[in-house]
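Predict structure. Chain length: 270.
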Amino acid sequence: MSRIAWKTLSSGENDHLLLAVDFAAGSRGPAQFADLAPLLDPPRTLWTSRPPGPDDQVPPTGNAYLDWWLGELRASGTPVEAVLGYCAGGVFAAALADRIADWQPAPRLILLDPELPATSGLYEDFHTAGDSLAALLTPAELDAFHARGEALRARYGDDQLPVAGRELADTFTAAVAAAADRLDLDEDIRDELSGAFVSLVSYLTAATTLSPLPAWSTATAVTTTTPEQPVGHDHRVPVAHDDLLRSPQTARALQRLLAGDRVPAAGKAG
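Prediction complete.
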């Protein structure tokens, strides 16, 4: 079946499904669930979330994103064994697991380096995304771009993600438009250049409308450092954060958790 809200990363022998929530649009340094899927042994059927695009007309609220993902999932009739959430994806994963329990036995909730959506990280993403446009922007335009980001950070600090995010997205879109006008780029290229960052802002903004901490407090987490928010059970793997989803140690820890086995204590997993 052709899916829009989910992408199949791997197929397993049983009829149960692992759902993985992460923002993986565009390129990024940290590993993705696509890197983890082939490491699972035995293989599992793993779907990863796709964020809605501008044409999907999904507002940036948690419930709208859940409806986007759950409608297609429920129509598939596939039973869900566990919901995995990476970084801010853990916010959505907690809510997805709760909603899925409305029509089937509650799936496991497994968090991987869970984080609440943070404006501080969004500023970093903004500047990194701006540098990716360096070949299209003039030096003066790039300097103005970064100066605008610093000005917004000075105004909002690390709070008010929805408001700061909207202005960062507008700044990014305007920079792309200026370059596109000068270089006579067509609309498809403009949308491609600006789409990933604008989509990230919507994703994080939607996550701020959900309250995952009660579910996190009883969930299992596989982490590289001590979580900032309390989780029920924390299993540490000795790898860098960016390598968490490409590490065989993460795959082995996840397989043990799914099998119901005990995972070695934090700092000894793998």
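Summary: The chain is about 45% helix and 15% strand.
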